[in-house]
Design a protein that fits this description.
The complex is a heterodimer of chains A (about 325) and B (about 375). By secondary structure, chain A is mostly helical. Helix content of chain A is about 70%, strand content about 0%. Chain A has a domain of about 220 residues. Chain A is globular, with a radius of gyration of 20 Å. By secondary structure, chain B is of the alpha/beta class. In chain B, helix 2 links the parallel strand 1 and strand 2. Helices cover about 40% and strands about 20% of the residues of chain B. The chains are: A mainly alpha (about 325), B alpha/beta (about 375).
Chain lengths: ~325, ~375
């Protein structure tokens, strides 16, 4: 049993990381008061721009191209998310509709551009990230096998961003302002905070992180952009709610999803698990989430002003 | 904020420029002088036109017919994968004058069953399927329909023999997409190929029941990567993937292991996937591929129709005997010795000395 868990663990972590970083992006946006249902589209955008960048650079810079690709992916998705910011902050549009538009545009325009540039809607990169084992730490029994073998550098990067995000949101004045904008923007405005600017920045950050998530999928386990991220953006949104809009809550929620999905995926290849019907394992995380959402619905920690356009005149 | 808006407008306009500057790559146009009246249409199955598999193979055959035979070609992609979606696109093609319609995939069976009567003066080619009604109570192909099947088991058999001869010993695995006849036949043929190599060439390849898996979709890349990783961790050295997008994940996993110095192989499917497994220079983790020459089938049907030899109502099988299935002509990862042995076995399959069963029999899954 222990062998099975340690055998699955590295892959479960690899599956969790893009989910975690995207969910964290959603957290920035929603804590500032803007619902971001466009995470899926932003991930696709990241995956696409990352793939295109890596494809064009990989001959010259075999390994550097991956990191440049990740950076470009984050920035492109960030810029793309400004469309959502513009519609929902400036034009006071319905944020759900604007986010849905982002999802629809991203899935279509990326394939369109990809086809025009490369002749195919699928962009395959030659090299992904190498898996590395952390020296010394990997020799710790059990824990070493689970956490420090076969890890991607992006995993550590994302965990670093998580710690940083936790710090920014709870320990800095920017974080306080951000949270204030999501709870009571009028009060925040009265205190001299520019709600528009804070919200724009937050949505931009959410775009960057979601784009990074999409590109991480590309450079770790998929190796190909194909115009979709298989609904992980929506799963990230569910994790955000399941994690009650808190960085550490999100870590737990996404890991739960990641681990349960991985178990479901690989169950067929592991004789002990193959006896359980695959369908049960596949629906398990979703059923648990539904139950959890019902249970938590009374004590939801959602930001109070999330989804409401900021209206200076309203008190 | 005004500035921000300006920046966004500039970005949008710039990206439009970018798009309009890039050149058209789809070679739908052809030499004027060769134009003939026939218009050939295609409706895609689930997935895109460039899926590196079924749709793409069919479309490449049609494009080749466009270039060489001068027919006008067009494809339409339905919004969904239901019979109604397919029928709508067939109707659209028909209305636009495309009266030779190719449909790849068993999902078109019920669609063509209806379309053959509705559009009696159009001709249909259905690949991997035969027209029948929704509850399988009536199978009927009119004079305007050709059903094409492939002997996937022979293709899988050849790939199994070649892989076993090259690696000589160790464990193999199989990852299939959905558990449908075409995929099952690949699997059964592959198993027979390994058994044949073990018995006749003294190889010792093991294919355990736990390493034969139908993932259940043709699209779950993540699951493909994770399944392949588990198998490789258990010591499997080569995996035969007949699974579309699931195979993409498996190929990616094998590539990252090859980079790290492990010797892991994938056996490709449908088309020669060698180029997709390249991880360094010209080195690829694709050992060989179990091919179905879908493009040849599509091209041949169009060519025959132009000669007035459309075999309406017939069910055609593309197998080793008519070079419709097999492994690629060039396999850089197979040694010369293996290639010559495989060629002999292929000849035996062609002339019927070696018979590959299309049934499960005593095989696994």
């Amino acid at each position: 049993m222990i062998d099975i868990i340690t055998g699955i663990f590295p892959y479960a972590i690899a599956f969790t990381i893009p989910l975690l970083i995207t969910s964290l992006g959603g957290l920035f946006s929603e804590r500032s008061g803007v619902v971001n249902i466009g995470l899926e589209g932003l991930m696709i955008m990241g995956s696409f721009s990352g793939a295109l960048t890596i494809l064009s650079l990989e001959k010259v810079l075999p390994h550097g191209s991956i990191w440049i690709g990740l950076l470009v992916a984050a920035l492109t998705a960030g810029v793309f998310s400004l469309l959502h910011a513009f519609a929902s902050i400036h034009l006071k549009a319905n944020q759900i509709i604007s986010g849905t538009a982002i999802n629809m545009i991203a899935g279509a325009i990326t394939v369109f551009i990809a086809r025009n540039i490369t002749g195919s809607g699928n962009i395959r990169i030659k090299l992904g990230l190498n898996r590395v084992s952390v020296p010394v730490l990997k020799d710790i029994p059990f824990i070493g096998d689970m956490f420090f073998t076969n890890t991607y550098m992006t995993t550590w990067l994302v965990l670093l961003i998580l710690i940083l995000a936790n710090f920014i949101i709870y320990k800095t004045s920017f974080g306080l302002r951000l949270r204030a904008c999501g709870e009571h923007p009028q009060a925040a405005a009265a205190a001299g905070i520019n709600v528009f600017v804070i919200r724009y920045i937050s949505v931009f950050i959410s775009g960057c992180l979601a784009g990074l998530g999409g590109a991480i999928i590309l450079v770790t386990y998929s190796g190909e952009f194909n115009g979709s991220v298989a609904g992980l953006g929506f799963l990230a949104l569910a994790s955000l709610i399941f994690g009650q809009w808190k960085p550490l809550g999100i870590l737990g929620a996404t890991f739960f999803f990641g681990f349960a999905s991985t178990v479901a995926n690989v169950s067929q290849a592991i004789p002990v698990l193959a006896t359980i019907p695959a369908i049960i394992l596949k629906i398990f995380p979703y059923v648990v989430t539904l139950i959890a959402l019902v249970v938590f619905s009374k004590s939801s920690q959602a930001p109070k002003a999330v989804g409401e356009p900021f209206d200076q005149g309203k008190r | 904020m005004k500035n921000l808006f300006k920046v966004m407008v500039i970005v949008t306009v710039a990206s439009l420029l970018f798009v309009s500057c890039s050149k058209k790559t789809e070679p739908t146009a052809m030499a004027e002088e060769k134009k003939v009246a026939l218009k050939v249409g295609m409706v895609t199955d689930a997935g895109t036109i460039d899926d590196k598999s079924f749709n793409q193979g069919t479309w490449e055959g049609i494009l080749k017919a466009g270039d060489e035979l001068g027919v006008t070609v067009k494809y339409l992609k339905p919004v969904g994968t239901t019979e109604a979606d397919y029928l709508k696109e067939i109707g659209n093609l028909y209305d636009a004058g495309y009266k030779f319609i190719v449909t790849p995939g068993f999902k078109f069976e019920t669609t063509i069953f209806k379309a053959q009567d509705k559009y009696a003066d159009a001709k249909f080619v259905i690949i991997d399927g035969t027209p029948h009604n929704a509850d399988y109570s009536e199978f009927r192909a009119e004079k305007n329909v050709i059903s094409i099947f492939f002997a996937e088991h022979e293709s899988g058999f050849m790939a199994g023999v070649a892989a076993a001869l090259e690696l000589k010993d160790g464990k193999f695995g199989f990852i299939g997409g959905m558990e449908i006849p075409a995929v099952q036949k690949f699997n059964w043929g592959f198993q027979q190929g390994i058994i044949y190599a073990n018995e006749n060439f003294g190889t010792t390849i093991n294919l355990d029941a736990e390493n034969i898996i139908y993932q259940g979709t043709f699209s779950d890349v993540a699951a493909g990567q994770q399944l392949a990783a588990q198998m490789f961790d258990k010591g499997v050295s080569a995996i035969f993937c007949a699974a579309g997008g699931v195979g993409v994940g498996a190929i990616n996993e094998a590539k990252s292991r090859a980079q790290a110095g492990e010797e892991k192989w994938i056996i490709g499917v449908d088309v020669d996937q060698y180029s997709e497994g390249i991880y360094e220079g010209e080195k690829s983790i694709i050992l060989t591929s179990a091919m179905k020459r879908i493009d040849v089938a599509a091209y041949d049907m169009i060519a025959e129709d132009l000669k007035g030899a459309f075999q309406g109502g017939a069910t055609l099988t593309f197998n080793a005997a008519n070079n419709g299935v097999g492994i690629p002509a060039k396999n850089p990862n197979l040694s010369a010795d293996v290639t010559s042995k495989v060629a002999k076995v292929y000849a035996d399959v062609q002339n019927g000395t070696v018979v590959v069963s299309a049934e499960q029999g005593s095989l696994i899954k």
